[in-house]
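Journal club prep — side note

Before the paper discussion, L.F. wants everyone to see what a predicted structure for a comparable chain looks like in token form. Sequence:
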Amino acid sequence: MITVMGVDKNKVFILFIIISTTAPTGGLLAGGKVSELIGGYTGPNALFYCLILSLLASLAAIPIPFLKKTSVIVVLFWLMLFFGAGM
């Protein structure tokens, strides 16, 4: 973001701190709760649950290199980390 998009260095650092702390933490908590509700990580639906989350993380990640708007990239990056941690 700093080199290619020309975003201010301080803004990038703040966004990185917010994204890297909230997305994995939220994904872990939400993923654990949902996994528990569907029968746990050894339950019959665990593999399907991980498949869905991995598809959602991939769908969030695919457009990132092609975008120019910082706010959209930040949201997609957050979603990618959230769903990845939810697995």
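L.F.'s comment for the group: Residues 9-86 form one domain. Keep this in mind when we get to the figures.
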